[in-house]
Amino acid sequence: MKGGWLRETTASVLVNSVYAMMNYPVVLVNTVLSPIGFLLVVYFVSRGGLVDQAIEGALIMSMFSNGMALQRDLSHLKNDFKLQDMVVSSPTTPAAYVFGMALSEIVDSTPALITLVILMALVVKPTSFQALELLGVMSLMFIASVTIGFTLSTFSSDIVQSFAFSSLISTLFSTLPPVYYPITYIPLPYRYLAYLSPTTYAAEIAQSTTGLLSLSPALLSADWLVLLVVAIVLGIIAIRKARWREV
User: Fold this and answer.
1) Neighbouring C-beta atoms of residue 167, cutoff 10 Å
2) H-only helix segments in 89-216
3) Closest Cα to residue 9, out of 134, 107, 116, 118?
4) Host H or E run for residue 122
5) CA count, 13 A, side-chain hemisphere, 160
6) Closest CA to 130 of 181, 206, 220
7) Which whole-number Å values give the CA distances from 205 to 98, 115, 174, 190, 217, in the listed order?
8) Integer distance in angstroms from the first to the last C-alpha of the chain?
9) What is the spatial distance between Cα 2 and Cα 193, in angstroms, rounded to a whole number?
10) Residues 6+ apart with CB under 8 A from 103
C-alpha cells in the first residue's frame, strides 16, 4: 500500500508539475508574480508600513491559490485526457490521486514559496514556535482550498469553465478580504463581511502570531476553531458530493 501511494504520488508530481516546469518555464514566472505582485503594490502604497502583513498575506494567497489551481489541472486532465476515467478503473484511490496532485501544486509553486519564506525570515523574523504556527495556518488554508478545487473539478465539464471558477474564487478569498493588511483598516460596518472568508481568520492568526495584530486568547482560539471547522466541513462535502465516478 505504501509503495502504491509513493508511485502514484511520484507519477502525479512528474506529470502535473515537473513536466510543466521543464517544458514551460513561464509557468514558474506566473506562480511567483501573482502573490508577490500584490505584495509590491501594498508595499509601495503603504510606503513599507505594511510590508510584514503583506508578506504573510502573500503566503496565504499563494497557499490558497495553489489549492484552487488543483481544480484547473484536475479538470484539464479529466476532460481533455480522460485521466480520471483511467484512474477510476485502476486500484488508485481518490485520496491517493488527490494527494499526489495536491503535492504537485506545492512543487509547482516552490519558487514563489521559497522567495516568500526568505522574505519572511529576513523581514518578519518569526521565532521557531511562530514559524510552526504559521505553517499550521498555511496548511489549513491549503487543505481547505484543495477540497474546494477537487470538488469543483469533478463537476466541471470544460477547462474554460474551470479557469473562470478558479480565478473567481481565488480573487474572492485571497485578494478582497483583509489578507495583505490588518482587518482594522476596514470600517466597522463593513468589517463583518470580511469574516465570511476563511482567509480572514488565517490572516488574523498569522498577524497575531507575529505580533502585528493584537487579539485576545479567546478571539485567537475562535479563529483557529473556525479554520479547523471549515477544513473539516469542506472535506466532508468533498467526500460526499464530489463526482468521482460518472453516473
Assistant:
1) 13
2) 94-108, 110-119, 128-155, 159-174, 188-194, 198-209
3) 107
4) none
5) 0
6) 206
7) 27, 21, 15, 20, 11
8) 28
9) 44
10) 9, 12, 13
Handedness of CA 138, 140, 143, 144 (dihedral sign): negative
Place of cell 516546469: 21
Single-letter residue type at 62: S
In order along its 247 residues, the chain shows pLDDT tens digits of 444 667 777 777 777 777 777 777 776 777 777 778 888 888 898 888 899 999 999 999 889 988 888 888 877 777 666 666 676 677 777 777 788 888 888 888 888 899 899 999 999 999 999 999 999 999 999 999 888 888 888 777 777 777 777 778 888 888 788 999 999 899 888 888 999 999 999 999 999 999 999 999 999 999 999 999 999 998 898 888 776 665 4
Q: Determine contact, residues 80/157, Cβ cutoff 8 Å.
A: no
Block residue for cell numbers 477540497: 147
**What is the distance between the alpha carbons of residues 230 and 142, in angstroms, rounded to a whole number?**
12
User: Residues near 151 by Cβ (< 8 Å), separated by ≥ 6?
Assistant: 234, 237, 238, 241, 242
Put simply, whether the predicted model's pTM sits higher than 0.90 gets the answer: no
